[in-house]
Amino acid sequence: MAEVICPKCGEKIRVKGTGGRKPKDLPVIFVCDKLRATRSVKQAAEELGCSRGYIYKVLKSEGLVMREIMTSQTES
After folding, report:
1. Which of 4, 18, 23, 58 is 20 to 30 Å from the Cα of 30, by its Cα?
2. Taking the C-alpha atoms of 34, 38, 43 and 46 in order, what is their torsion angle to the nearest 10 degrees?
3. Higher pLDDT, 26 or 75
């Protein structure tokens, strides 16, 4: 168990765990390549070991939409 200090009262509070799961940090190019290869968000998420929501979040953060990824050709 870890102890944290309350920012309001300054009292020590005991908490379980280490703060949760570490966030994934997959490069957007990996996500796009996997989407082009699988043509399925569900399958891409399974193969990358993340959620479908994470894929949409990565694309949104880069200003991309699914339609653009699925219709674009891989750059050579």
Report:
1. 18
2. -30
3. 26
